[in-house]
Amino acid sequence: MMKFKPNQTRTYDREGFKKRAACLCFRNELEDEVLLVSSSRYPDQWIVPGGGLEPEEEPGGAAMREVYEENQDRKHRTYVYVLTVTEILDDWEDSVTIGRKREWFKVEDALKVLQCHKPIHAEYLEKLKLGCSPTNGNSVVPSIPDNNALYVTSAQTSGLPSTVR
After folding, report:
1. Residue 36 to residue 25: CA distance in whole angstroms
2. From 95's CA, which of 46, 50, 68, 125 has a CA 20 to 30 Å away?
3. Which residue numbers are catalytic?
4. 95 belongs to a structural domain
5. Is the pLDDT reported for residue 106 higher than 80?
6. Between these two residues, 3 and 120, which has the higher pLDDT value?
């Protein structure tokens, strides 16, 4: 199912949940620092880069695209991808067009910041800490579909912008 809004098309699964993808972007393979971006809706709040899937888009491609764009909705299923950043651009589209910022946080600090206003984003990191990591090849995929399912997948390299691996 799709809904059209000005400047965007939202896609939904057959149960009515918005399809989303997000990226946990780590500074290095130690995974001790994660990149957060300022919210476009609330610029003083930090969030995990992510947003809605476009029609016919795969979650991995959307996650990588959403590192640079942001979109939020309340009822959604999110596929979370873990990436290691290999290069940082001084400016990117959202920093120029809407003044979005980015900052590296120690994972423990990111959990505290996210827990205040985006607890679901904190859950992405918590699930990763429980054993889901690109370095160990594990992912969290429930065996029985869950209406609020969170899927964390190991790092993917195909189709990534040249700034990340």
Report:
1. 8
2. 125
3. 69
4. yes
5. yes
6. 120
